[in-house]
Design brief:
Distance between the termini: 30 Å
Structural class: mainly beta
Order of helices and strands: EEEEEEHEEE
Strand order of the largest sheet: 3-4-5-6
Helix content: under 10%
Number of helices: 1
Largest sheet: 4 strands, antiparallel
Shape: globular
Strand content: over 45%
Length: 113
């Protein structure tokens, strides 16, 4: 079974299937990558994994892991299971297999993913 990412064309008012995604990507969420392309982000254990589409040698597009970020070393107070944390400096962080949501993040440092 596959999950699908749909594309809606505002000019043509048409809906089409842009990308089929295998089941093992079902817990990832679509994101906009730094280069403007479509990417996926997902949590596995205590790592945030970023995926993007690449054309292989045969000319077919496939999902390739672009980056893996260890959240234990990046986000203070994160547990090993990736279940979430509440740090000592009132930063609220909710992490699940589907969503990484930062409710309030007040810090002098900016991290680009």
């Amino acid at each position: 079974m596959y999950k699908k990412i749909l594309k809606y064309d505002l000019g043509k008012h048409s809906l089409s299937v842009m990308i089929d995604m295998p089941d093992d990507f079902s817990n990832n969420v679509p994101i906009l990558m730094e280069d403007g392309s479509l990417g996926l982000a997902g949590i596995r254990g205590s790592s945030l994994r970023l995926w993007s589409r690449k054309v292989n040698q045969e000319g077919a597009e496939q999902w390739v892991q672009r980056r893996s970020i260890n959240l234990q070393s990046t986000v203070p107070g994160i547990d090993k299971q990736g279940g979430g944390a509440r740090s000592h400096t009132s930063k609220d962080l909710l992490i699940s297999n589907v969503l990484l949501h930062i409710k309030t993040w007040q810090s002098g440092r900016v991290h680009h993913l």
